[in-house]
């Protein structure tokens, strides 16, 4: 009957960090894009950054996600961006057509990625 209707939980996107891309040139002249996921920080990550960015007219097809520790004040590592989006599925709070919202991860969770 409706006595036990589940309340839809609303998620606040406003207090999340919107990951911004940084671009780096490789030795062969190609460019890759990178975004960061920082320990303890709720983060918005683009689903398809390759559709939105170019550098010097060049499409950017290679993307990396860097994992940053605030506890150790260092970079833990990096991984293929699109593989990372799949790996982050258990930590997604919400998503829309362009972004996923990832909850703040602990140091151990970041290391396990």
Quick take:
The chain has 113 residues and is mainly β. It contains 2 helices and 10 strands; from the N terminus they run E-E-E-E-E-E-E-E-H-E-E-H.
How would you explain this protein's 3D organization?
It is a single chain. With 113 residues, the protein is mainly beta. It has one domain (17-112). 12% of the residues lie in helices and 39% in strands. The chain has 2 helices and 10 strands; from the N terminus they run ββββββββαββα. It has helices at 81-87, 107-112, and strands at 17-18, 22-25, 31-38, 43-46, 54-55, 58-59, 63-69, 74-80, 92-95, 99-102. A 4-stranded mixed sheet has the order 1-4-10-9, with no helix packed on it. The protein has a 4-stranded mixed sheet with strand order 2-3-7-8. Strands 5-6 form a two-stranded antiparallel sheet. The protein is globular. The N and C termini lie far apart (43 Å). The mean pLDDT is 91.
Overall outline: globular
The helix content, as a percent range, equals 10-25%
Radius of gyration from the CA trace? 16 Å
Count of beta strands: 10
Report the order of strands and helices. EEEEEEEEHEEH
Quickly give the structural class. mainly beta
- State which percent range the strand residues make up: 35-45%
Largest sheet: 4 strands, mixed
Mean pLDDT: 91
The residue ranges in which pLDDT falls below 50 over 5 or more consecutive positions are none
**How many structural domains does the protein architecture include?**
1
Q: Please give the oligomerization state of what you see.
A: single chain
Strand order, sheet with most strands: 1-4-10-9
């Amino acid at each position: 009957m409706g006595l036990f209707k589940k309340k839809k939980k609303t998620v606040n996107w406003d207090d999340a960090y919107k990951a911004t891309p940084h671009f780096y040139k490789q030795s062969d002249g190609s460019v890759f894009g990178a975004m960061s996921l920082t320990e303890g920080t709720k983060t918005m990550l683009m689903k398809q950054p390759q559709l939105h960015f170019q550098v010097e007219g060049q499409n950017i097809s290679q993307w990396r996600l860097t994992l940053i520790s605030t506890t150790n004040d260092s970079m833990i590592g990096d991984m293929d961006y699109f593989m990372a989006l799949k790996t982050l599925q258990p930590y997604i709070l919400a998503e829309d057509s362009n972004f996923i919202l990832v909850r703040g991860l602990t140091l151990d969770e970041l290391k396990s990625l």
